[in-house]
Design brief:
Layout lengths: L3 E5 L1 H5 L12 H4 L2 H4 L2 H6 L1 H17 L4 H12 L4 E5 L5 H4 L6 E2 L2 E8 L5 E3 L18 E5 L9 H9 L3 E5 L11 H7 L3 E6 L11 E4 L2 H13 L2
Parallel strand pairs: 1-2, 1-7, 2-3, 7-8, 8-9
Antiparallel strand pairs: 4-5, 4-6
Helix pairs in contact: 6-10
Keywords: Cytoplasm, Hydrolase, Metal-binding, NAD, Transferase, Zinc
EC number: 2.3.1.286
Subcellular location: Cytoplasm
Length: 230
């Protein structure tokens, strides 16, 4: 039975109304990374950082999964082998679309993290650095997301899955952010067939055996149907 490992990026959620980061008009053209998405930014102006993520949390809560999210959930439910979904996205659209056991390598908007004790809890819609940690009481609340300069979550587990993959697919990713941009190479070393699905070839498209272009909501369901045989 084939094991399939899937990496998803902002492109899969774009059709649900959530902005991508590196495309023209993307989030990083409207905000400076160093102002809202680094530990240094949080230390310098926690209120600004919280305001940025509070707005994104509201937007994500209003978004709905699209056909690509639902197709991957179908693949998990119907494929005879293991299907592992790893996402760079901090929204919850995979789970809303029916996927299970999603690995959020960059954290989740819906979760809060205490910078003092490492405690985690469900985030309020509007977070503030003045919120007290339910575990230790410290007012050191931050979004439970991975910022630039921080190590993505569950990397050992992800690399283990890649080493056992028969098929690796990257969907809606820019190929500009490591370590995720190197996942195709890792999977290929283990003998996996690598497929990229994107609006246009990513920065690492050459690492893939096959590149399919088009809207995720259209291309992903077709790809899933091929794997499942209809």
């Amino acid at each position: 039975m084939q094991k399939i490992v899937i990496l998803t990026g902002a492109g899969i959620s774009a059709e649900s109304g959530l902005g991508t980061f590196r495309d023209v008009g993307g989030i990083w053209q409207r905000y400076r990374i160093e102002d809202v998405a680094t530990p240094e930014a949080f230390a310098r102006d926690a209120d600004l950082v919280h305001g940025f993520y509070n707005a994104r949390r509201v937007q994500a809560a209003e978004a709905r999964p699209n056909a690509a999210h639902r197709a991957l959930a179908r693949l998990q439910a119907e494929h005879a082998g293991e299907v592992v979904i790893v996402t760079q996205n901090v929204d919850g659209l995979h789970e809303a679309g029916g996927a299970r056991d999603v690995i959020h390598m960059h954290g989740e908007l819906a979760r809060a993290l205490c910078a003092a004790c490492g405690g985690r809890w469900e985030a309020a819609a509007q977070m503030s650095v003045r919120d007290a940690c339910p575990d230790c009481g410290a007012c050191a609340c931050r979004p439970d997301v991975v910022w630039f300069g921080e190590m993505p979550y569950r990397m050992e587990e992800i690399l283990s899955h890649l080493a056992g993959a028969d098929i690796f697919a990257a969907i809606g990713t820019s190929g500009q952010v490591y370590p995720a941009a190197g996942f195709a190479q890792e999977a290929a070393l283990a003998g996996a067939r690598c497929v990229e699905i994107n609006l246009e070839p990513s920065a690492v498209a050459g690492d893939f055996d096959e590149v399919r272009q088009g809207r995720a909501s259209e291309v992903v369901p077709l790809w899933v149907a091929e794997i499942l045989g209809g």
